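Saturday, quiet lab. Running sequence design on the structure tokens for the scaffold JK sent over.
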């Protein structure tokens, strides 16, 4: 994204004059640990180089104008009325952050904002969290001298998506977007927010993001249903074992207690959660010790669990992952994010990446009927003011 082009568009839209400031907020990829964030478990994400940019200028009133170049739409918000309005559509994400931070007593006034991103919407790379953290950082830096701590920004953005917009998500996305470090992945315990960084360098391999272009809407998917099923499993287990979350169970605990869960579907959800949590911890150790092939095998196990136990993949994700794994220089692949469409990732030998993209793209189009998109992106910094 060329900042000068964005600045020129801002001036065309809002006129010249005043101090214009520039911000960037990344997307994220979760390497392993899908659907564990709301189960109190470990996840292993990293911030990517793709994300959402903003040009911002203060106003002297309570009006907030937001133009998105991606969808060529404008939202007009008045700080005197920040109640949720379904008709505001995408603008409810930044609006929800304003609502949460204002409710907590932080300063906020009018702004003109132009946003432009290179994250595909609805692809599972956290375009919504990117926008939420972007808005939270803008509010901190423009009106609160940059003194709102990152954990407050993360929690406000998380509450905006869950309580305001109505997607009952975990906190991983907002955390990774805000706390990313270049060339590093984050081992995050979502229950406590304790975290550690591991250098994420794949040596002779590259990570390829594969966008199925199957759009999804988590409000309309079975995402909230999966949360409810895990809640039911937890309720059953707690009658016999004092735990705070499903991820407090070891594999041995689960095997001892699984017969208590009579419903097969709920039992399968719980099994995925417990075994996936164990895989995340092993994945972190493999990455720390440069054991890329062992790490990649865990990606394969994770996808099979998400497909057969958690049932959140679908034809598009399964097709692209199966084709990727059949490629001789790919050592591991899996869906990433919430599923129901969106993206998958693959670990591929660097010198075969172009062949991989051409071959998998062709096979995917033949099988599904439309194109997939492929991205090569490193792990980057979390949200920041550019200059």
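Result came back. Writing it out in full:
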């Amino acid at each position: 994204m060329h900042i000068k082009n964005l600045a020129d568009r801002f001036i065309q839209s809002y006129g010249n004059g005043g101090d214009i400031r520039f911000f960037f907020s990344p997307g994220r990829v979760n390497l392993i640990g899908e659907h564990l964030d709301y189960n109190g478990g470990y996840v292993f994400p990293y911030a990517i180089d793709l994300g959402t940019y903003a040009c911002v200028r203060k106003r002297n009133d309570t009006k907030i104008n937001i133009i998105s170049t991606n969808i060529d739409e404008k939202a007009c918000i008045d700080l005197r009325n920040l109640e949720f309005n379904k008709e505001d559509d995408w603008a409810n994400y930044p609006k929800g952050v304003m609502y949460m931070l204002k409710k907590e007593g932080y300063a906020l006034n009018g702004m003109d904002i132009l946003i432009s991103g290179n994250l595909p919407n609805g692809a599972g790379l956290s375009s919504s969290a990117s926008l939420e953290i972007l808005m939270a950082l803008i509010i901190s830096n423009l009106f609160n001298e940059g003194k709102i701590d990152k954990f407050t920004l993360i929690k406000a953005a998380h509450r905006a998506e869950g309580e305001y917009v109505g997607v009952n998500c975990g906190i991983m996305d907002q955390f990774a977007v805000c706390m990313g470090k270049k060339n590093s992945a984050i081992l995050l315990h979502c229950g406590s927010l304790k975290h550690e960084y591991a250098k994420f360098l794949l040596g002779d391999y590259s990570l390829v993001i594969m966008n199925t272009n199957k759009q999804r809407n988590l409000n309309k998917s079975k995402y909230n249903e999966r949360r409810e099923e895990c809640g039911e499993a937890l309720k059953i287990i707690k009658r016999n074992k004092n735990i705070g979350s499903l991820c407090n169970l070891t594999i041995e605990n689960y095997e001892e207690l699984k017969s208590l869960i009579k419903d097969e579907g709920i039992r399968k959800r719980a099994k995925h959660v417990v075994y996936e949590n164990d895989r995340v911890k092993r994945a972190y150790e493999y990455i720390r010790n440069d054991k890329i092939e062992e790490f990649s095998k865990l990606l394969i196990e994770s996808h099979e669990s998400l497909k057969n136990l958690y049932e959140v993949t679908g034809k598009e994700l399964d097709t692209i992952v199966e084709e990727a794994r059949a490629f001789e220089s790919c050592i591991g692949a899996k869906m990433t994010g919430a599923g129901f469409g969106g993206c998958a990732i693959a670990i591929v030998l660097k010198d075969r990446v172009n062949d991989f993209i051409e071959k998998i793209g062709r096979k995917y189009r033949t099988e599904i009927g439309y194109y997939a998109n492929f991205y090569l992106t490193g792990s980057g910094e979390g949200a920041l003011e550019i200059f």
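Notes for JK: The longest helix spans residues 264-288. The domain at 3-197 is CATH 3.30.230.10 (Ribosomal Protein S5; domain 2). Ask whether to fix the surface positions before the next round.
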